[in-house]
Structure formats: C-alpha cells, structure tokens
Fold each of these.
Amino acid sequence: MKIRTQLQLLILFMVLVPLLCALSFPVYQFITSPQRYLMAGYKEIRKLEGLDISTDDLDLLGVQLKKIPSNIETMVYYNSTVLISSIPDIKAGTVMTPMDLFDFLRLSSGSYNYQLQSLGMRPTRRLEESVLNPLSILIICRAKMPKPRMDKDVRKWGGRFLIFPAMVAFVIFEIVCAIFLINLSKTISDSITILEETTQKIALGALDTKIAPPKGRNANEITSLAESLEKMRVSLQDWQDRRTKFIMGISHDLRTPVALIKGYTEAITDGVVTDIDKVKGSLSIIHTKADQLEGMINDLINYVKLNNTDWLQTLEFVELKPILVEFTGTAAATAEAYKRNIRVRIELQPETQVKMDKNLFNRALENIYSNALRYTRDGDSIAVEAVETEKAISIKISDTGIGIGEKDLKRIWDIFYRGTNSRREGGMGIGLSVVRTIIDTHGWNIDVQSTLGEGTAFTITIPKNTEPVPKVGRF
C-alpha cells in the first residue's frame, strides 16, 4: 500500500469516525421510530387492490400520519380491520368489531392517553364523541401516562437500555478503527526509523549493516526504497571487497619484479657484481623484469579502462565470420609452433552481423586460446567451433589439457585468482576476468565446463538482436 493511500485512509478515518458517531443517534431513532413503520404500512395500503378508499382519503391519511410524533403509538382502523399498527398489542390485519375496539381502549386507558381522529374531523380524546362509522378511517394514537416521580430513575435506565446496543456497536467500531490507525501509523514510522538508522550506520562505513524493513501487506514506497538501498549496499560492499583484493593483488604481483630490479641494481652499485659479463647478465635480468613490470602495468591500465563503459558508445555491427576465420588462421599457426593439434569448424552465414567492439572481442578469444595453449601438452588437441541457430550464435573453444579442479572452477573469473595448476605459470590472473567483463558488458553469456585431467571447454553464447548492457564496478 502506498504512503499516499495510507495517509488518505488515515485522514478519512479521522473525519469519518466522528461523523458516524454524530449520525448514529438520528439513524438509530429513525430505525426504531414507530412512524417509520406507519409510513411503510401506509405505502402497503396504497398497493392493495379492491380497497374501498378513495385516493383523496389515502392522500389525507398519509398527511396525517406524517404529523404524528415518532414516540406516539398509532393504528389505523377501517371497516372493522386494523390496516396499520405500531401498537405492540395489535398487529396490522387484525379484524376487530367496534365493540372489541372499545373494550381494548377502555381496558388500556388506565395506562395510556388516547386520541382518536376520523379523517377530515378534529381529534378528540373522548371515545363517545368519536364518529365510528364502519366506512370511515379512524386514526387512534396513544401515549403512556406520566409515571410517578419515584419511577424517574427506572424510566431513565429504561431509556438508556434502548440505546445500549447502538452504543456497544459504535464503541466496537471505534476500537477497530483505532487499532487500524495505530497499525497504519506504526508501519510508516517503523519503515522510516529503520531506514534512517541503517543508512546512518552505512554512511559511517558499516557496509555490513543489512537494510531489512518490515514487509507484508502494509509494504509501501519506503519498503521498496529500502529494498533498492539494500541492493546498492550489497553492490557497494562487493565493490569494496573487489577493490581491496585488487589493491592487494597489484601489491603482491608487482613486488616480485620490483624486488629483483632493486636487488640487481644494488648489487651493481655496491660493487658486489664487478665482472663485466655478470654485470651484463644482471642488466639483462633488470631489463627483462622491467619489461614484465611494464606489461603488468599495461594490463592493469587496460583492465581499468575496460570497466569504464564509454567504449559502448562506439560499438558497430560487423560480420562475424571473417573475424573468426582470421582468428583461427593465426591460432592454427600458433598451435603448430607449440606442437598442438587444432580443429576448426565455422558454420555461420556470411551475412551474419553482431554489434560489438572488434578489438575487445578478439582479445577475449585470444585470452581463452592462450589458456588452452598454456594448459595443454605436446600432442594435445584444441578445437574452435562456431555454429548459428535462429536465436543465438555459439562459439566454443575446447582443449584436451590438464583441466580445472572443481574448487578452482568457481573462482576462475575472479581477478588475480590463479588456480592450483596455474600457480607455476606467469601472469597476474587477470586474463579470464577480462574475458568475463568483455562478454558481460556486450550482453552475452559465457560458460565453462572442465574435468580434471581431461580438458576444458569455454562456450560464448551471443543472443541475436541483443543490445550491450553497461556493467561497472567489476573490480
């Protein structure tokens, strides 16, 4: 439920409850009013067929009934029949002779004051003065005689007893409304309080503080906002962890060549190495490590640039088959130099185009292929396959090398991570992380399957008509 709706409900109930309380007593009096039953009976009379009463008399009867106060008990008598009655002792439809009517009035006259009126004649309280023509309409009204003062409290409590059910009903209604309003306001205040407390902790650097607002049917925009902030917190925490690992990885991998350069330089400067051949050998090592260091720095710079997705604005549609043909031609020459067997199968339509950065795509393929060369032995096989369906293009690079262990397979995409079989090799552990970043940012998918001792297969799936999606903060 939205906050606006919740506040509107709150205002509505604040206005509605007092209004209902103010209207409750008039409504109750109307519902219990004898006049209501009189007018209902009057309407029923007008619907009767064969009743020997003129329309004018019926209209006059309706006018007279409306004039009768609501606390007066009334009955309408015509042609020895009670047509309408709000007197509890006599029901509508009762057949009474004039003598029976007189007897009833006489016996109850000790408790009630009676007033009789024939339509068109003035009212009278004396029965003998009334004109009781069997074909005239007689309106009989009665009211209780005032009781002695000693019964004042009894009458007062009797009146209160009549309105007691209504009072109980409205008290219960008000309690229910109060509970609803309290719960509504608590939901809003709890959401705001939790959001405020957790965001303050996060602002102070406690990124492990989870934002977990109350959920359920009373969820509102604040709850949705808190869920979005929780996703941002998780992403920020993950980015911070990656950044920490990134810095630690850089420090670790750059320390080795720097230490060697520093050591050989000090040895030459301090005169530890004086032989000209040894000096040349030391300088050669320094040059090699400097080249290695330069290569690492370039890899890092390229990786950071890759995470800046401005390059997505320069993507263009290119034909995929010529790119793969060129790549596999170079791969075949490299495989021959490394004494590897290579198998190529490209089944793509010549006109098939993919929106991409050609250089980055080639870099991803080269990184995967370099790993295949590095972790295979002389005589092993490497296969490059590309097939096309109606929905996607699949590019697979597989080998029959040493494979990847199950525990390493889950982390091969992490930057600076080098598996058990790769720790003896050179490199910083950036290659596959670069591949994953390129593939993800293009909006494609990559999957790896490997069995230790049998080989590894990387499969790139390019959905057709898929726009690249910016993905930042990978390190």
Amino acid sequence: MKKLIYNKFDKPTVATLKRVVYHGKIVVINTPDEAEAAVDYLLSQSVLGLDTETRPSFTKGRHFKCSLLQVANKSICFLFRLNHIGMCPPIMKLLGDKTVTKVGLAWKNDLLSLREVGEFIPGTFVDLQDMVREIGIEDQSLVKIYANLFGERISKADRLSNWERDNLKETQMIYAAIDAWACIQIYEEVLRLKATGDYELVVREEIKQEHDETNISETR
C-alpha cells in the first residue's frame, strides 16, 4: 500500500498527533575553539540539517540579531551560540562550504538573519520548501510538513523563549535540536518517495480554500 501524503495538512489534526521525541546528543558551543572542532566534525558528514533561532522582541522598534545556529546529523546536534561567538571563522567556513549537503527550511530567511551577525559568502543549501513541492506538498511550515510525512507533531512551545539567556534551558536545547534534525528526516524521506514513487497524493481542496480565505502563510 502506497504512503498517503496531502497537499495541505489539516492544522487541527496536527494537535492530535504523538509528539516527536529527540534521542540524539546535544552539544552547546560557546567559544570559537569549540566551534572549530565541531565544524571539522560536521564537514566530514554527508548530510546536515540546519536552523536558526533569534531572541524575540516584544517592544516596537527593538530587534535582536540571530542568537543560535543549530546544525545536526542523524545522531548529534551542535548549538552554536552566536550571541557569544559571533560570525567566527569556523562558522564562516561551515556556512560557505560547497561539498556537504546542507538542508534547511525557508533558508533564505535564515541566511539574511545570519548575515546580520557577520558577512560571509554562502555555500550550497537545499531548501525543503522547494523540495516538498516536487511531490505535491504545498505547506511551508516544518510542523505541517513533518506531520504530513511522519504522522508526528513537532512542538513549538519554546519558539518565543529567550535565546540569549546565560544558559539555555533543556527544553530550548531539545526544541532547537529537533528543528535541525527534522530537516534531515524530511530530506531523506522525500528523496525516497521520489525514487520509489511509493506515495499517493491526496488533494484536499477544502483546506486550500480555507488557506486562501484566511491568507495565512506559515514559513517556520
């Protein structure tokens, strides 16, 4: 039986799904020396998932720079605290790399945020929003795409937490790691479905109409 996927995933259904659990290792990077060792390891991998976090501002006119860059393979996620180490040479090397497959979601937005921290020449990246369209998925949010493909829910409870606090909370670290790790899971599953054709796309017009009427566009 082919796997059923949907062009639009119903948001109320997402809330009923089992929550994603992250079983990998998390390493927090606070110094340029730590960053150098982590980047050397990451650039030896075949596929990396990336995401960023920024401290939210609740005051009009106040803006914070990108606080965190999270980079994961299948078993470990490194959390680079950019508010501590800035755009140091190892981070520039990682972001400028053109040899390792690096996967993100709405990555152009992340690049803009990262370049506020410091200038660098971007390497090559795969954007999942473009990739999932190739199999008919129209949703753009990580939560809906992951729920569609795997039937599990990514919690966004810590999205608006303070990413510049002295020590990140455990829930923040897990949240950040899942977002990067999930990019790899989605990337590999879409590649599998494209290669095997082992899926059936269900077009849900009523959800498309609801989307058009409310004019809501989720990008994260």
Amino acid sequence: MKKVVIIGSGLGGLTCGVILAKNGYDVTILEQATQLGGCLQCFTRHGVRFETGMHFIGSADKDQTLERFARYLGTSERVRLSRLDPKGYDVVSLQGQQFRFANGKEAFIEEMAASFPMERENLYRYFSLVEQVANASSLHSLRHAENDQALNTEFQLRSINEVLDEVIGDPLLRQVLVGNLPLYAAEKDKTPFSTHAFIMDFYNQSAFRIIGGSDSMAKALAESLKEEGGRVITRQRVTEIVCDEMKAVGVKTATDDYYPADIVISDTHPARTLEMVTSPLLRPAYRHRITSLRNTIGGFSVYLHFKPEAVPYMNYNFYGYSQSSPWNCEHYDEQSWPKGYLYMHFCHQENPRFAESGVILSYMHYDEVMRWEGTKVGHRGDDYEQFKQQKAERLLDAVERDFPGLRGKIAHVYTSTPLTYRDYTGTEQGSMYGIAKDITMGPAARVHHRTKIPNLLLTGQNVNSHGVLGVMVGTVVTCSELIGSETIFNQIKACNE
C-alpha cells in the first residue's frame, strides 16, 4: 500500500482522503487545529452554534451531482439536510425591490419574468447558456469524457458582465442575476462567466442548509475515511515537506514527528504549501508565480445569537445592497462601507419555527486589519475590539433597514475579520475564496493540481474552482493523477445504480 499524507482536513483534503483510501492507499490526514474541517468548522457560544465558512449547499436532491458524489463518499446518510424555499432560496434586495431565485429552470424564469415580462425570451437564452456551460464540464456533470472543451474555454475567458450584456436587455435584470455574487466574490470585467454558471446551476437544481451545522459533513467524511482504513490526526501542524533530490519523501510537524510518504497532497493555500518546501525542486520562477497570484477579498462576519423565539426562521438567504448594483462592493471607503451584505440563519433542528442564530457577511480588505497582523486570536487588544464593534454596528444598521427591529431581538453578537479567517484556515490574507479567477491574466491565474515536485499534489478551493461543488469535484482532478478519472467516474456511477 502506498502511503499518502494529506496536509489539512478541509473539504478537499477529507474528500481526497476518502477517494484514495477507497482505492487501496494508506491515507493519513494531518490537521494543525484541534477541530477538523477547515471552512466546515462550527463553533459554540452560550450553547448556540455558528458556521464559519460553508452555510448552504446545492444539487443535493436524489441523482443530482452533489447527492451522487455524497453517496459515493458514504456521507449521504450521515448528513441531514433542510431544504431552502424552492420558490425563493435566494432573495436579492436592489433599488427598493426584492427579487427571488426559484429552484428549477422553468420556475426561475417564471419568477423573474413576473418582474421583467419583456425579458422572458432572453431569460430562456440566459438559463440555457448556464446549463450548457455547466454541462460542458465532465467534472460538474460527473460524466466521464463528455467535455465540450470549446465551450469550456470560451466562457472561462469571457467575463460575467460581458456575457450578460450580450444576452439580457434590461439593465436592472442584469444586476439582479448577479445578486448572489458574494458566494464567489465576483469582480466586474474579471470573473469568468463559467464561474457564475457553475454556481447558478449548482444551487438552482436544489438548495439546502445542513441541520446542526456544516461540521457534520466533515465528521461524516472522517467516519468514511476511518471505515476505509484511513485516519485524521489533529494538532499536528506540518512545518516541512521533506524532499530528496527527486521527490517528496515525507513531512515533519511542529512536534518533531516525521511521517514518511510516497505521495504528499496539500489542502492548504498554495502560498502556505510553498513555505513548507525548502527543496530546489521548486524553482524561484514557480514560487514567484504562485505567490504573485491575486486572492479574492476577505470578509467581515457578525454572528447573531437571537433571544428565544424572537426571530422566525428565515428559510432563504438575503442579499441586501445599498447601491444600484451588486458589482464593485469590494471598492469602498470608510463612508461607503458596507455597500452590500449577505444575511442567513443557522438551521439548528429539522423544520425550526424560530432561529437561534444567524450571520451577516460583508467584504473587508486585509489592509483594514493589517496593523494587528502579528497578534493572536483573543489577544489583539482593545483597539481591535473597538474596531470590530464599530464595524458590527455599521453592518447592523444596514440590515436593520431591511429587517426593522432586528437589534432588539439579539441576545449576543460575535465578530470575525480576515485576520480570524487567516488564522483558522491558513488562506492568504484571510481571503474568502483563495486565489481569484481572473480572465485578464489568462492561464497564468490558474493553479494546477500538479507541482514541480512529481509526487506533491494540491487540492482545495484554489484548484479547479471554489465553493462546495468546485472543491469536491476538484478532488477528482487531484486523485485522477494517481488512479485515473475514468476509474473514479465508474465508481461513482456504480454507487448510484
């Protein structure tokens, strides 16, 4: 059995571990934190739970992409789901109007056409294009060797706004259709339409919250890994990927433990991976290219603990904007922040009547917290706490405009900044989604799963694409290097017959 050491127990690392363990590899996952899961982690305050990174999933109905993948990974029976409102799983508030994203092509078009009756034909064109682009990828459709490479390439090189300007006539409708762009931190003229299409298709098929929190997915994957003979070891921070003259031979940890390996897979940010490698096998030009890649913006989170039975459970996600467009919310100053926010509730039980907790998310540049860079969580000082409190008040002011009286229903408020996210996930400067997809840089903006060290591979949100589905299907790319994509696709197919 070949030994595989995986650095990091995020969604990518755990999924890679299960796939490889299923195929006869001896898998060990090393996690620096006490809790596994990366962005799947949850935390508890005053007996109430909160999610840190993954708040809802899509395509989880029977025979849809994520459900098929979950069945293969052995997690479908272990993770309980709560369906978001099929008539409006996402609600976008723009220019004083609210617009609902309904599940299903026909329902989505009908809902939008009610507000934009003259755009019905264009909505069909738009949605057909979304489906074509999503299905052009064999990864996102889980159909081996059914790529449409020409279509894939075209829409990886064209921006979201360019395509929408071409397909949709009404300027307001164009803005509405990108109302959920905080899910992937899209940027005007930069983010490819393919990223938008994958996200829209993923959630339009079906949308769910995970009952009890996203960490149940991490625990389910760890259980599947254990059943296949693999293991996750927490509180083991890898400090070095040890190499000989030709390849990686193992890893060392901060506790001076050494784990020999035939293959090393890193589920950390590529910049963190490079810091672990001193070998000349990674040349300066490669290091410079990876460390020079631009990352998506970070986020500021306000976690809300509600008073008992004070806030009815909100069975959808709410995107509120103070400006006329969801674009350019990342370009703000002290006076204009926040230009937009995403507000969601936590699903603590099946069919809850009232919410126990929720979260408000908005963009935040790392520059705003850089002065506290050398500090540790819980020990950043009074000025940092005051900074967070001021930001939380500003964000609550914005939400109160759409949800009057919310403040009076809150028992406790907790906050986090890009510094918090950086310290818990290792992502560069607390970036929400890692390395940015940027059409202006062409292929140079992409991170390949292979490195210049033949048996050192990468996985996670920086490879393939981010988001739950992007990360999970991206593990197929990484694992295919060892066992072949056809083998994996056939195994997924067999588990779902």
Amino acid sequence: MAWWGTLLGGTLGYMFGGPLGALLGAALGRNFDQGLKGTREPGVFGAGEQQRVQAAFFTTTFSVMGHIAKADGKVTPDEISSTESIMARMQLDAQQRKAAIGLFNAGKQPDFQLHAVLVQFRQECHRRRNLVQMFLEIQIATAMADGHVHASEKRVLFTIGEQLGFSRADIEQLLGFAGSSAAMDSGRPSLSTAYKVLGVDRNASDAEVKKAYRRLMNQHHPDKLVAKGLPEEMMKLATEKTQEIKSAYEQIKKSRV
C-alpha cells in the first residue's frame, strides 16, 4: 500500500496530473492539477516512479471498468457484483474502496474521456506489455461478468486494445482465455479447457506445452507485475491467474503420463 500512502502524503499528488490525476482527485476530493512533471526514459523508474504507475493503474482500472459496464446502455447487477468482488479480493480499506467506487461511477458518465485516459495510462506504463495485459484481463472479466460479452462491450474492448497496442486478434485470444479461466474456476474443468488456458492444442508436443506454461507464468508472476507497477493490492488477482495456469498445466501433464 506504499503508493497509496505516497499519494495521500502529497508527494505523488505533486507530479500526478492529466486526466488520470483529475479522475483520482475528484474521487478523493483533492486537487491534482499540476500536470505531469519531468521526463522519463522509457522503461526506467525514477524516485517514486513505481508508486506513480500503481496509482495510474488503479485509477484507469476502475474508471474504465465503469465505462465498459455502461457500454451496453445499462450496468447490470452482475457487473456491479464483479466490481465489488475485485474490490473485496484486493482487500481495499474504506478510503480506497470509496475512491474505486467514485472512479467506477466517473467511467459511466457520458463525458468520460476514454481516449485521453488511455493515452496517459499507456505513457505511464512505459510499454510494459505484461502490465497492460493484466489491465486488459481485468476489463475483460468485467465485460464477461453477466456470462457473455455484448457487441457494444466488445467494440469498446477492441478500441481499448488498439490504443494500448493490442490487435483485435490479441483481444479475441484474451477473451478466449478468460472464458477458459472461468471454466477452470468451475471446479470441474475439462482437459480441452486446460489446453485453452495454455493457448495450445492437443497435438502440441510436451516441449511446446511446457514453453507455453512458462511464458504465461512469467507474464502473470505477481512479484514481477508489482515491480512493473501493479498495485500491491492486486497481487491476489495475479496469484489467482498463476494458479489457474499451473492447474491447467498439471492437468495436461497428468493426462499424458
């Protein structure tokens, strides 16, 4: 929670502006209007840089979740439940939860500046693709909260993906992974589901399966994601993902003995 303490302490507030600063400031009842300060070499964190990316991730995650939830014209109880579930798994304190709800509500508004928010988010993430992918996976989980993705939600996801450097094929693949992950969570996943979680087919060699497993584990490693800027509170989401990947891999290995 170091980023949150830094934010409330004022240090982060001094250099965190733009549309994300405006959103977070409104959610907290504070004024973060000084704008972005300084320049950064892509891929390199300076003093307080990690906390800044964590604040940007938190802000973008919940505001865009609200935008996606409203994409089909209404926010369903399932979508609200999905958002509350994520908050619960993050174990947010009362102030963080209030801010998350405020951001979610801001994302639902007709004047929500999706493009500007994503431009700044991508800038803050410094092309950290694994971190951005985790963000997309959370958004896809929100879209799938009611059991299926509406056409309007899918269009928004394609738009978000494109702005963040992910193709339509990439988003379709993540949608497939999300569906398979939901099946893994059911408690009785099929072997075909396990293959889909790893993104390989039944004819893949043992070496190919192992390579896919290691790649996915590396992409979702909680400690690595936090080091790249994932808020510490979201480590549980990444841990759950690695457990799904490991479970799928173990199931496939067992079937090949």
